Amino acid sequence: MFQPSVRPARPATAAAAALAAVGALTATAAAPASAHIPAHPRTSARHVLLLSVDGLHQSDLAWYVARHPQSALARLAAGGVEYTRARTTVPSDSFPGMVGQLTGGNPGTTGVYYDDTYSHALLPAGTTSCTGVRPGAEVDLTEDLDRNKDSLDAGQGLSGLPGSVLNMTGDARSLIDPSKLPVDPATCKPVYPHAYLKVNTVFDVARKAGLRTAWSDKHVAYEILNGPSGSGIQDLFAPEINSEATGYAAGDDWTKDNAATEQYDGYKVQAVLNEIDGYDHGRTHKVGTPAVFGMNFQSVSTAQKLPASDGLTGGYAAKGVPGPLLAKNLAFVDKEVGALVTELRKRHLDGSTTIILSAKHGQSPTDPSALTRVDDGALLDGLNAAWKAAHPGAGDLVAHAVDDDAMLLWLTDRSRAATDFAKAYLLAQSGTGNGIDGKAKPFTASGLKTLYAGAAAARCFHVRPGDARVPDLFGIAQYGVVYTGGKSKIAEHGGAHADDLDVPLVVSGAGAEHGVRIGVPVRTTQIAPTILRLLGLEPRDLDAVRIEHTQALPVR
């Protein structure tokens, strides 16, 4: 359960105690979430490979390992420390989730609440004459920033795509169209993603220590992970996942067919294999294996969200039980992880490399019978109409909204009267959505369980009321509610249910104990200081670690 009044939790002392015990054991006793973990000695890892399997739940990993005890995922978990009660950030979106893993901070600290948000301090994209322009701008970190979002190379202009995609530049920032970026009123210049981030990243710290860095992700906007320096990642491979998927149905991107998503993920796996071998992602230059590198897998997420693909039913067959498409995709991820582990062993790097497996977010609902699809567009249109009816001459109240299985609203009027008006309107709305079978299904309170407005929303994220970036309303949906105007989705993420938050976290390899399962709460934000500690660097060199007192995970 999301607890907005509690500062982001530190890991429990019981986790460290479990590792101090002799032999492999399972820690199951809970401890106070604010307890402190003692520092542990520097470890001997020379490389950390971070793998994010987007959408993967801890329950999915447990389900797969139980049925495939000799699998690569099973060996990875058994060969390291598995934290069975890890949770990602709230909101549980890809951007705050990944940023959290690599900064040690939650959205209120990093300033990154979602992949598509709003700032009351910036000017709209395309502004060239800033004098007298009223602040207030969308901050879009999606495919919309690409020079060409319909092309896998994001507009680089490569021939022979998709086969030539590994020839993409490692300078992802060069593929961003600056005319699509919000503008800083002080300089009247575009604000790139890395400059929007309020705190530094693991890559920033590693680069300052003279270590090599690389990363692979789904949009060029992930150049945000460079950190404020703008140069944290030396080799960022970011093929556009929402581009047109060559060889598949016309107009479909790489997420609309799970086989396409697997093919897309395969390009990133090959990039990491090349990096393990000591090359850049395209295998063009010999540069040495990075100290910090990794990628995200997207294919589990599409297997959870698509009703069907490749002749197989998507999502879950019953509560927490993967259906045939998801089961197939878990096997795909297992095979690819196995290939990475094998390559590390082949290059004699297995003894000096730590692998960290986790996920940016989960996916909800895992119970198909709970699904209620609600058209959020109609709700927001109604809210704007009600506001204008009550305030003749006023414009729309909603400046920007993002709704998946949470609701984040930024308003044109941030007064208490306006936020209270929006809250009261939304909680009074009932209607009809549709369920997993497509049939009509009623909803109440706009599908919301809880709605924080104004100062209460700011307190959720531990920022001051009036903060330029915090949403004016933050809504936690009722379990099973997915905001969508159609029937093409059966799950989403972004919210604060257990299905959104409960992700796997495994630290395996150099510097980690073997065969230990820790059953006390930990957070994925603890991955960042853990990476630095594994490499013998100072976790407190991370801004967010100092602000939130984020502790490294106990690994020995």
Walkthrough of the structure:
The chain is of the alpha/beta class and 556 residues long. The protein is 27% helix and 18% strand. The protein contains 16 helices and 28 strands. α8 packs parallel to α10 (324-346) and α9 (299-305) runs antiparallel to α10 (324-346). The two termini are 29 Å apart. Residues 5-12 and 21-42 have low confidence and may be disordered.
Write the layout of secondary structure elements.
Blueprint: H1 13-20, E1 26-27, E2 47-53, H2 58-67, H3 72-78, E3 80-83, E4 86-87, H4 94-103, H5 107-110, E5 116-119, E6 137-140, E7 183-184, E8 189-190, H6 193-196, H7 202-208, E9 214-216, E10 235-237, H8 258-276, E11 292-297, H9 299-305, E12 308-309, E13 312-313, E14 316-318, E15 321-322, H10 324-346, E16 353-358, E17 372-374, H11 376-390, E18 398-403, E19 406-411, H12 416-427, E20 431-434, E21 440-443, E22 448-453, H13 455-460, E23 473-477, E24 481-483, H14 498-501, E25 502-503, E26 506-509, E27 516-518, E28 522-523, H15 527-534, H16 543-548
Parallel strand pairs: 1-27, 2-11, 2-16, 3-27, 4-28, 9-10, 17-24
Antiparallel strand pairs: 3-26, 4-25, 5-6, 7-8, 12-13, 14-15, 16-26, 18-19, 19-23, 20-21, 22-23
Helix pairs in contact: 8-10, 9-10, 11-12
Beta content: 15-25%
Mean pLDDT: 93
Q: Helicity level, as a percent range?
A: 25-40%
Backbone shape: globular
Number of separate strands: 28
Can you tell me the residue ranges where pLDDT is under 50 for at least 5 consecutive residues? 5-12, 21-42
Give the distance, in angstroms, between the N- and C-terminal Cα atoms.
29 Å
Kindly report the spatial arrangement of strands forming the biggest sheet: 1-27-3-26-16-2-11
Strand pairing plus helix content: what structural class?
A: alpha/beta
What summary fits the major beta sheet?
7 strands, mixed
In DSSP terms (H or I, runs of 4 or more residues), the helix count works out at 16
Radius of gyration: 22 Å
